Amino acid sequence: MTNLKKSELEKLYKEYEKKSDETFKETMPHEFVWGYGDASSKVVLIGEAPGRDEVKQGRPFVGKAGQMLTAFLTDAGIPRDELFITNTIKFRLSKPGAKEGTLKNRPATKKEIIFSCGFLKREIEIIKPRIVVTTGNVPLKAALICSGLSETEIGTMHGKPVNKGFGVDDTILYPIYHPASLIYNRGLEEVYKYDLFELSKMSEKFF
Ligand code: URA
Question: What pLDDT, in 10s, does the model give residues 131-158?
């Protein structure tokens, strides 16, 4: 990570922390996890939000879904450590669990997605990747909102590159399914492998 990019990202994350604490007082305290990886990478991958394991380790995509993602990336010939990986919403989306003192995950709200989209765009402008891979509906919605495009579901957009992703010049948006969706629907595995294989071919020119 170049020092300049590192300090710009740190500044951005500080601002994100302050603004989200001000905007979403009802879900305080927030457990933040910032983007991680090679900030000079030509490929940025965006998830939904960190879960319990990510908060514990302070890195995105290290739990069960993250392990699946790593395995599929490796199979497609894409080394995970050559990517920059971040999340749309950078704090855990949690609500009280059934047992007192426990937390469980909850879906992102539209307000949280709209709030995060401007920050994501700035994160991309700092890193300057050529390809931005969104995993599942939440980062895809953020990308479409940022680009001024109408919202579409991942089922119709996966594996289809879109020019000017996040409204940033020279940036291709490449939507894929979220790895967690494969846990519930094994039938998506072949589609997922195919989409990652295509990503690998597309990104070869940039590594
Ligand atoms: N872990 C993450 O960091 N992001 C996700 O979207 C899912 C798991």
Answer: 999 999 999 999 999 888 888 889 999 9
Instruction: Provide CB contacts within 8 A for 33, sequence distance 6+.
Output: 50, 54, 55, 58, 59, 60, 87, 90, 91, 92
Measured in angstroms, how far is the CA atom of residue 136 from the centroid of ligand 1? 10
Pocket probe for ligand 1: among 33, 62, 87, 94, the residue whose CB has the most ligand atoms within 8 Å is 87
pLDDT tens-digit series, residues 46-89 = 999 999 999 999 999 999 999 999 999 999 999 999 999 999 99
Q: Which residues line ligand 1 (CB under 6 A)?
A: 47-51, 54, 60-61, 63, 65-66, 87
* Tokens, residue 150: 């109408």
Q: Which residue has the tokens 């490929």?
A: 43
Query: How many structural domains comprise the chain?
Result: 1
Of 34, 36, 52, 61, best ligand 1 pocket probe by most atoms within 8 Å of the beta carbon: 61
Q: Where are the beta strands (DSSP E) in 16-111?
A: 36-37, 43-47, 84-87, 94-96, 103-105
SS3 120: helix
- Residue 27: CATH number of its domain: 3.40.470.10
**Position 18, amino acid:** K
- Which residue has the CA at smallest separation from atom 1 of ligand 1? 61
